[in-house]
Amino acid sequence: METDKSLHFYFAVQCHISKGNGSLSSKRQKKKLGAEHLQRIIDLCRSVEERGLDPFLVDVNDVIAIVHEYFPEWESLDEFNFDAEAINRLASVIRQQSDWVRHRSTSLYTDPFLFEDKLRKLSRKSLARLFLDAWHPIVEMEQISPHGLAEAIKYWQSLLPLNERWTKTEFMKTALGATSREELIKQQIMAEKAFTEELEILWRELKQRVGEKKRIPYWDFVGADSYEETVRRAYMTSFLVTYGYATFEVYRLEEEIFIVPFNKPHSLVGKKQVVSIPVAVSVEEWRKWRENKQN
Asked: How many Cα atoms within 13 Å fall on the side-chain side of residue 108?
């Protein structure tokens, strides 16, 4: 900004010198001096326009006076074009000055120096009051309110007495007996097959269904006649991938997922970064798969 002010000051000084010595210069020297002034005008306006400088660095009245002074000296078409370019650049700066004033007036802008002057004139008490009015702390202290106390009293009054709440529960005595393995499986207390055994069976089924294709669509493998069985197969398939029995091939653009089985379990720990792939197994997706399969 200091460089631009110096440029403006230098430009004004040069214009003043040209006014004082214009009568002593020849016509050719005056035209040359006028061309230099127009070039400075164009450069200054261009720097304001392209570099976003303060448009009020350009003194419009001085520029118009210089253009008016040298205009009678122009004779060729190039000289008039040069003069027109300077006027066009000046018009662009004037438009920026107008936009600046309009923006500041519509946004209720106040010059920072005016604020500083007002703050310096305020007393400490007034300044502290303004600070408290404008202060919005991000931490607050919470305390119980009268409404909270009333709700707490209402809650404790609604509780049963301790002698009623701590009444011993009477258990019904039954005779001891034996149960079968089928009954335990039915009550879901005992699994019909061990987890690793189920995983091995599902892995062999995957390799058998894939065959020479090397891969199978995800839903074609986990999909079943019932939604419950589909969820179970999807759950077990996730462990097939986690334990290295198979892997996923994901094509995000086509929204397709394939399962690729391995001939032998692969341990991925420490070899590559493992990425979790969430797959939605919702009722809607299952119904959509069923309809596509039937069609």
From this structure: 0
**Chain segment 206-236, per-residue pLDDT in tens:** 888 888 888 899 888 888 888 888 888 888 8
Q: Which residue has the higher pLDDT, 113 or 269?
A: 113
Domains and CATH numbers, the chain: 2-106 (no CATH), 195-294 (1.10.10.580)
